[in-house]
Structures are given as C-alpha cells and as structure tokens.
Amino acid sequence: MHQAKRQIALVHATMNSVQPIVEAFQEHAPHVKLLHFLDEGLISELNETGVVSESMVRRLVGLMERAEQSRAEGIMLTCSSFTPQVNGIKHLFSKPVLSADYSMLEHAVKLGKRIGVIATVQAAGPTTTGLIQEIAGREGADVHVETIVLTEAFDALQAGDPNKHDQLIGQRIHEMESRCDVIVLAQMSMARVLKQVPKGSVPVLTSPEISVKSMLSVLSCGD
Question: Where in the chain are all domains bearing CATH 3.40.50.1860?
Fold first, then answer.
C-alpha cells in the first residue's frame, strides 16, 4: 500500500520566503508534502508601521488555523519578524508550531560571543537581536551583537533585482567577518546570498536547512 506523505504547513508573510524553504525541504526532506499559507499584506504593513499590531497577530493566527485545518502535522512560520509572537500563540494549536529562525539563533549563540546580524526588513533587525540576547541569557552566554539593516536589499529583491540584493548583503558579510565569530542572515529570503558569495572566514547562518531539520526532529519525537 502506498504510504501517505507527511504534511507540513508553511505560513508566509512574503513570497520571498517560499523558494528558500521549498528548496531546503526538497534537499533534506523530499518525502514531505508542503502546504503554503500566505498573506503578503503582513510584511507590507510591518514595513510601513514598524510594529506588529494586534490585528496583524490575529491575521497570522487565522493563517495558522487554516494550516491546522489542512491536517498538517506541523506548522512553521517562515517570517522572522513574527518570531516573538510564536510563544504567545502556539498554545492555541494542537500541532507543533515552530519559527523558522529560532533554531538558527540558538546555534549562533553556541558558535561565538561576537554575533553579526544582517537583516533587510527594518523590524527584523531588532527582533533578531532581541531573540539572540534572550537565548544567550537563558544559556548564561555573554554575547555582543552587531546588527545591520539593509532595507535597500529587500527593495531590490521586491523590484526583481536579486543580483543587487545579493551584492549588498555580500559586501556587508565581507565587512563584518573581521569583527564577528558568526554572522546571521536574519530572514529566510536572504539564504540565496550564500550561493552567490565566496565562503569566508566565519560561519554565515541561514534558517532554511536548520529549520527543516528542527521540524523533522520535533515530529519524530511525537511518533
């Protein structure tokens, strides 16, 4: 008898996150069926206001409710700007809920004390910085975080100029290497950069591969 594929729901706030996470699942978990739930208005509003409002959280929960109704075994949020909301809403769901970047940030804290963060969405910079400091505090680690936000890179990607997006981020990676033990690319949409820039002297972390493995680990524990 043909065995049904595992189903995982991906909740997106931008189309830019779709391809990186799909490619990561194809490489590391081709046996998984992906279900996509998208509201691009969330990231547009966040870029305009810089604040995650209650109405935005309700919209996010609405997407997640649809994801759960789809019979997905797990739900993954792919937009790092909404990661701080996950702990406050995941109890509403019977299925595991993960934020795509959290495992990556835990890994970054283990790799070094000087952590560089590059983001392309204004809200993602301080959000990622705060999460790293929260994780470091929990682990008793002493870290220094340097954060750079390149909104012009996000604008370039949205305008259909991925080469400019990659170049801008690649330049900042090169500049930060001498000051950092590890560099974090805050958003999933930035993962494409590693295919375009030479490997440098320090680890550069992106979330797709790490988040796929984290979700599979969580689901395996529930088997």
Answer: 6-100+209-221, 102-207
Q: What is the CATH number of domain 102-207?
A: 3.40.50.1860
pLDDT tens, residue order, the chain (223 aa): 445 678 999 999 999 899 999 999 999 999 999 999 999 999 999 989 989 999 999 999 999 999 999 989 999 999 988 999 998 999 999 999 999 899 999 999 999 999 999 999 988 999 999 999 999 999 999 999 999 999 999 999 999 999 999 999 999 999 999 999 999 999 999 999 988 877 878 999 999 999 999 999 999 865 5
What is the Cα–Cα distance from 133 to 139, expressed in whole angstroms?
Answer: 10
Output the pTM of the full model. Answer: 0.86
CA distance 194 to 205: 9
Domain 6-100+209-221 indexed as CATH 3.20.10.10 = no
Tell me the backbone φ, ψ of residue 117, rounded to 5 degrees: -125, 130
